[in-house]
Structures are given as structure tokens and as C-alpha cells.
Amino acid sequence: MQELLERKKGLHRKVLIVDDEFIEREMLGAMLCDLYEIVYAENGAQARDMIRRDRLMLSLVILDLHMPVLDGYSLLEIMRSDGDLRRIPVIVLTSEKEAEARSLQLGAADFISKPYEAPDVVRARVRHSIELAEDSVIIHETERDSLTGLFNKEFFFEYGKRIDEQNGYMAMDAIVLDINRFRVVNELYGRKYGDTVLKKIGSSIHELVQQTGGLACRSGSNSFGIYIPHSSDLKDRLEEFRAEIDQTLDDKSISVRMGIYCDDGSISDMERRFDCARLACHKLRSSYSTCYDFYNAELHSREMHSERLITDMDKALEEKQFKVFYQPKYNISGDRPVLASAEALVRWFHPEFGMVSPGEFISVFENNGLIHKLDRYVWNEAASQIRLWKEKFGMTVPVSVNVSRVDIFDPLLGDKLCGITEQNGLEHEKLLLEITESAYTDNSQQIADTVSLLRDRGFKIEMDDFGCGYSSLNMLTSLPIDALKLDMKFIKNIASSRKDLRLVEIMLDIAKLLEVPVIAEGVETKEQLELLKNIGCDIIQGYYFSKPVPADEFEELIRAELKEDTHAYC
Ligand code: C2E
Ligand code: MG
Ligand code: MG
Prior knowledge:
By secondary structure, this protein is of the alpha/beta class. It has 3 domains: 2-143, Rossmann fold (3-Layer(aba) Sandwich), CATH 3.40.50; 151-295, Reverse transcriptase/Diguanylate cyclase domain (Alpha-Beta Plaits, 2-Layer Sandwich); 320-569, EAL domain (TIM Barrel, Alpha-Beta Barrel). The strands form 3 sheets. An 8-stranded mixed beta barrel has the order 12-13-15-16-17-18-19-20, surrounded by 4 helices. A 6-stranded mixed sheet has the order 6-8-9-7-10-11, with helices on both faces. It has a 5-stranded parallel sheet with strand order 2-1-3-4-5, sandwiched between helices. Helix 11 (270-283) links the parallel strand 10 (256-261) and strand 11 (292-294). Helix 3 runs parallel beside helix 4 (72-80), helix 8 (182-189) crosses helix 9 (191-212) and helix 9 (191-212) packs antiparallel against helix 10 (234-249). Residues 327, 345-346, 357-359, 362, 371, 375, 378, 402, 404, 434, 464-465, 488, 521-524, 541-543, 548 line the site of ligand C2E.
């Protein structure tokens, strides 16, 4: 068993055999290949390039002295004068005693004499040299974390950056590994146990960088940094690594999370790579099911933007950066289209980003619950606008406002809406309420209850985006609603697709069954309008009539309407 483990461990160590004689290389390789990964070079120059390239991965160099192009002595000199290469042990192949002294001066770790000794002796020498090099404290104690033996954070970055520079910024992956709830582990089981956990994780990390090359540090009380040459199968490697940690810890109550910056060439600075890995790790804090995640630049910048919008929201409300636009809805059942009502749609005039459309911020505010503040602001604006138009034009233009799914859970929703309408001297039915269909399907009972209460208090409810949710016919018939607003995606192709037109006809049939009117949203062309009129859709909203416009522009539409029929809304 022990031998098997040794063999397994050894296979991950890479040994470079440098000899110009093919037979010699092959013989040595044959003695070692089932214990180590063997690579070959046939002269000093080739070996020098390989060593420079693979400096993080090489455990040992076995070097012939007499070779063309660049001989063994010269290569030893090159290695000795380079701080990083000096760490790789070299066994010199020699047949002369005199050569030994010179090689020793140049830093050789051991000798294998030609013709070769028995394979067991060769293997023992190789193992011994590798172990010695790995055990020796090359770096000063203060550069290591005393508990785990890994680098400390400062030295880790210093050394890592140096390696990056020397390696021409070769692709490196950065991993931040944190122990979940480590404080609790310490408090529950004591510091000593905590230290054991740290040590075990430290040695698994050590093992990983031994296998892959690279370096690692303990960067905080429960945090580690791992910097390893980029590999395309990193995911598999991490799976194995995590399994190994689980096995070593043998304690189900302890788990780790890892954030990874997988080198895609976009960042070459080591610290920035680790910033990204830390962000990815940080995101996992609240996730119990995922133990590692990769940094994603696009996602991150979107999240940063959303965060910024959240931070700016309160100030924006105070400073009235949110403006309510109005889009008319026309009744087309008669000879000419008649302005029937409007929908209030919010826009954010952000001092830095310019106009931000609701598509960008509504779902962000819905996700963190802040939407109720914005909705209330919009409802107030819309209600006072209805009042202003009533005062200015002597008529009431009903306005529909969007009620987010989050608002449905507010037990004071009805009181708030009544307060707003009453404050503006409006009948409740003049402030129409749009609730998206998907909210119905998510929480059907809660919605049905809330909507019934609102209707009891005189509000009219329009089911928005109809066709996008998954309302069953059965559910629809039991829902208390006053109108269906067809989602614009159904309207988009009615002029070119018979199927789409037929689908809209079916939805109109459903509305007929429910005895509610249908509003078609997103009508952009005359052709669409005619088709909808022909199949019996009465109310139209869309760019064909007008885009959502500021209140003062909307007044032009009211004036035009008044010219046609001064008594239309009295
Ligand atoms: P919605 O309530 O379904 O609003 C209709 C959307 O369709 C609006 O987008 C409107 O500008 C757009 N639209 C209308 N006619 C046409 C057309 O002919 N062609 C095209 N391509 N688009 C048309 P907008 O203003 O970007 O709003 C998007 C969504 O954001 C709204 O969808 C609504 O769900 C939400 N929203 C807007 N304002 C508010 C608000 O104050 N509160 C809440 N909770 N949600 C809001
Ligand atoms: Mg709407
Ligand atoms: Mg809609």
C-alpha cells in the first residue's frame, strides 16, 4: 500500500533527463518512468529552455556533463546564478572522479556514475535528492506561515510577481480558498482542533502545488491563496482536490469554498487576478450547495452596475431623477380611435448614466425588495397627474400603473392605494392596476386574495403580459380580473404569421369567456392595427399611436382628442 502511495505521489513529479546519447537517456528513463513523469533533452541548450519554461513543475534534473551546444557545466552555472532555478536539484552523470568536485562547486546535489549502478541504487539517489530539496527550508522562516508551512501573504505576492515577470507572464490560474464558518469551528471545537484543520488543508494545498507547479500561501486566518499554471482541466482537478480535502478532514461539518480566476488572458497582474478570485469566493458565502465558482467578468460588471443603481436609488427618489412617462391606449372599436387611458412607465434620468430604462432597474429593485419605494413614487406621480389633467382640461384620463409582484405581499397595499387616490380626489377605478401574469402563476392564492380585496375597494385590475405566464384556463376563470393585456411578443408577427394571428384570436376567445376586454400591447403598424380590429380587439397600446412620452407631451394627445370630441371624458 505504502509503495502504491509512493508511486502515485512520485508520478506527479517531473524529472528532466539531459543526455546527448539516446541509449543512455532511454536506460535511465526506463529505470524511473514508473515512479516519475520523465521528460528528455538531448543537449544543454534544449534543457536550459525547458527548465526555464517548466521551472515550477520540475522536481529534478539529471544532467550529463559532456554534450554538444551547451555542456553540463555551463548549464549548472546558468542554474546556479538564477535564484529560482537554483532550487531545482541536479544529479550529475559522470564517469570521472575529477568532474565531481567541479560539479559540487556548481551546486550539483548528487552523482550517478556511468555505467549505471543497479536500478535500485539509482532510484534511491533520485528519491533522496528530491526529498532533500523539498524538505530544505530554502526560504527564510519569516516567509512562511508557521502553522501550515505555506508562504505568508506578503512573500507569496512578491515571489509570484517575480515568477510572472521572469516567465513572461505565462498563463496562471488564481484560487482563493476559504473555510466555511471557521469561527464557529474554532468556538465549538476549540482552537487546537481549528489548527489541525488548517494544517490538514495546508498540506492538501501543498500537495496540489507540488503536482501542478506554482505556489500557495495562507493569506488570512481561514483563507488561502493558490497560484498555479493555467490548465484547461482545472475544473476536474479542483473536484479531485476538494474530494481529497474532504477525505483528509474526515469531518462533514467542515467545508471549503473556492473562488477561481481562470486565466483567459484578460488580466496579467497577479494581485488583480486574486481580487477576481476573491470576488468569486465571496459570492459563494451564502451558497451551501456550491463549493467553487469561476469569476465571470461580464457578470461582475453587470452586478457592479446593479449595485450602483441600488446605492443611488434613495438619492434619485429625493432628487426626482425618476420621471414618469405616459403611453396612450386607444379604443378602436368605433369609427375613429378614441383616447381611452394611459399607462404610467417610469424612466430614470441618472446624472452619470443618462436615461436608464426600466428593463435595467425594475428587476434589480424587485430582487432586493426596494421596488415598493419606487412603485409608490410612481403611483403618487400618476395619481397627481390625473388630478392635474382633470383640473387643466376638465376631464379624467384614467392611468394604469404597474404593481410589482413584491407589492402583493404588502398587507397595507390597499390602504396605501386608497390613500393616494383619495388624497388626489380620485375615484379608485381611475387608477388602474397592472399586475403581470407571471406573478399570478407564482403565488396564485396570495394574488387572488389581494386582488379580490383591491377590487372590493373599487380598483380595476389588468393582467399584464398575458400569455407569458402559465395560467391554466381553469385558474383564469377563477381569477378576479378586469382586463387582459396581451404581451407584445404575440402581436409582433401577426401580419406575417397565420399561426400567430390565430393564437391572438384564441386569446381573444378566452377573454370573451372571462367577459373581460383585451388590450393589445406593442402595436407598431397600421396592418397590425387593422388585423386586431378585424378579430375584435378593442383597445390598442403601442408605438403606432405613440411611444411613452413625458406628461407635457401627452397633453398634446389630450388636446387633439378634445378637439375631436370635447365631451368624451366628462
Ligand atoms: P409593461 O408594463 O409590459 O410595459 C410595456 C412596455 O412595452 C414598455 O416598456 C413600453 O415602452 C413598451 N412598448 C409599448 N409599446 C411598444 C411598441 O409598440 N413597441 C415596442 N417595442 N415596445 C413598446 P418600458 O417602458 O421599457 O417598460 C418595461 C417594463 O418595465 C414594463 O413592461 C413594466 O413591467 C416595467 N415597468 C415600467 N415602469 C414600471 C413601474 O413604475 N413599476 C414597475 N413595477 N414596473 C414598471
Ligand atoms: Mg404594464
Ligand atoms: Mg405589458
